[in-house]
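Severity: low
Component: inverse-folding endpoint
Summary: output formatting inconsistent between runs
Steps to reproduce: submit the following structure tokens with default settings.
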């Protein structure tokens, strides 16, 4: 869908039909972002809903610099980060130093893993690992930027990414090994 200036003007004017079309066009893509930051669909749904509320509330702040889709994506990512921060403040453990090996044995080899299966492995990462992994590997933020967003040091961001990658490697190796032995 083309989001031209007149369409964006309708959005800023809170035109309900324009908002509905806008949501329908972007929600599926943005849900993909949400799902990467969450451990379950309910959290992803919450992030998406809260994200679009923020989009429509702060749309007047979109200055037309860059694409509106990019602006929405950034808003959704920031919403996911805030969701993560709220969990930390509520005392929910978001980082596990010692992980239990996955008991979910698959009957496929890594070369045959679908995007959904890889996404599932990423979603099973502890929240801190998953958030840094998504921000760096998927969204392309630097460790310095991630540190500023999450109120952590740059070295902590690097450490979280390293642990996320190691955990993913171990889980993928475990799956491959079980497929080769089965």
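Observed output (run 2 of 3):
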């Amino acid at each position: 869908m083309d989001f031209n200036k007149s369409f964006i003007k309708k959005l800023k004017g809170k035109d309900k039909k324009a908002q509905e079309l806008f949501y329908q066009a972007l929600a599926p893509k943005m849900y993909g972002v949400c799902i990467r930051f969450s451990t379950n669909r309910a959290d992803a749904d919450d992030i998406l809903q809260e994200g679009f509320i923020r989009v429509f509330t702060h749309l007047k702040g979109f200055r037309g610099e860059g694409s509106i889709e990019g602006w929405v994506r950034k808003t959704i990512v920031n919403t996911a980060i805030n969701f993560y921060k709220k969990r930390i403040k509520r005392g929910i453990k978001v980082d596990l130093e010692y992980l239990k090996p996955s008991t979910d044995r698959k009957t496929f080899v890594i070369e045959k893993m679908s995007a959904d299966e890889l996404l599932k492995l990423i979603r099973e990462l502890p929240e801190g690992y998953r958030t840094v992994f998504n921000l760096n590997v998927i969204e392309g933020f630097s460790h310095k930027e991630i540190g500023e967003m999450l109120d952590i040091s740059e070295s902590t961001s690097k450490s979280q990414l390293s642990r996320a990658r190691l955990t993913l490697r171990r889980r993928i190796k475990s799956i491959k090994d079980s497929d080769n032995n089965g």
